């Protein structure tokens, strides 16, 4: 059986979780945000079509279009690859063509 002190702690924790999920600050929680890659700008800087870029980085054309229209976000290896391409589009594309 749960005593009042433990119940109050549980309720407080649920309220803090709700605040955190709403994007509000919660004591003891540090949130770091990573900037989202601007996929369209990266592709346009590389001067390449959507179809060519998708094929070059190994993703489905629809996936690339979803990223560009911000319906979905690139994650993991795709996100890392996009950052590399963004840092030097010409060199990255030359390396990917090999």
Describe this structure in words.
The protein has 98 residues and is mostly helical. The chain has helices spanning 4-21, 39-45, 50-57, 61-68, 76-87, 89-97. The radius of gyration is 21 Å and the shape is elongated.
Essential attributes:
6 helices, 0% strand, 98 residues, mainly alpha
Strand segment count: 0
Q: What structural class results from the helix and strand content?
A: mainly alpha
H/E element sequence: HHHHHH
Largest sheet: none
Termini, distance in Å? 66 Å
The radius of gyration is: 21 Å
Helix percentage range: 55-70%
Q: On the 0-100 scale, what is the average pLDDT?
A: 87
Number of DSSP helices?
6
Low-confidence stretches: none
* Shape by Cα distribution: elongated
Percentage of β-strand residues: under 5%
